Amino acid sequence: xxxxxxxxxxxGNTTVSTMLSQRLGYKLINFTFRQLAAExxxxxxxxxRMAENDDSIDRELDSRQVEMAMAEENCVLxxxxxVWMLKEADLKVYLTASAHTRAMRVFKREGGxxxxxxxxxxxxxxxxxxxxxxxxxxxxxDTSVAxxxxxxxxxxxxxxxxxIMDKVASLKS
Length: 173
Description:
With about 170 residues, the protein is of the alpha/beta class. It has one domain: P-loop containing nucleotide triphosphate hydrolases (Rossmann fold). Helices cover about 60% and strands about 15% of the residues. It has eight helices and five strands, in the order βαβαααβαβααβα. Strands 2-3-1-4-5 form a five-stranded parallel β-sheet, with helices on both faces. It is globular. The chain starts with a strand and ends with a helix.
């Protein structure tokens, strides 16, 4: 079973994907923009700016993720566009949270000032959405492609994984 999990930044995608893959014993595929930036030895925010004018960056990231997922019989692919890009996914999950909650989570993870994290989160959302629309024609706020949409503001990662596990069990039966 291939499971695709998508969200905007700060919704818990990495945490939930990791926990779910561990509970299922599936390979985790979570190759991120941050990892690609590090691989290319470019600072993350500079890499984000570069991606604004170089669609090959997104295309490389997304194609590598799909290739990794297709090489596995059972996996959890966690990425911004997993539910759109991994067309072969048996289950597509989209995580949502308010902009404030997402900024708070990024703030707790990365530090800095909350105001700065709110600005960065809103700016990143705007730039990401614009790029995805331009490159792929994808509206990353349209959750209709997902089999399961989970609002994460008031839920723990464990509760979110339990919801997904229930859905997985229903698909396997």
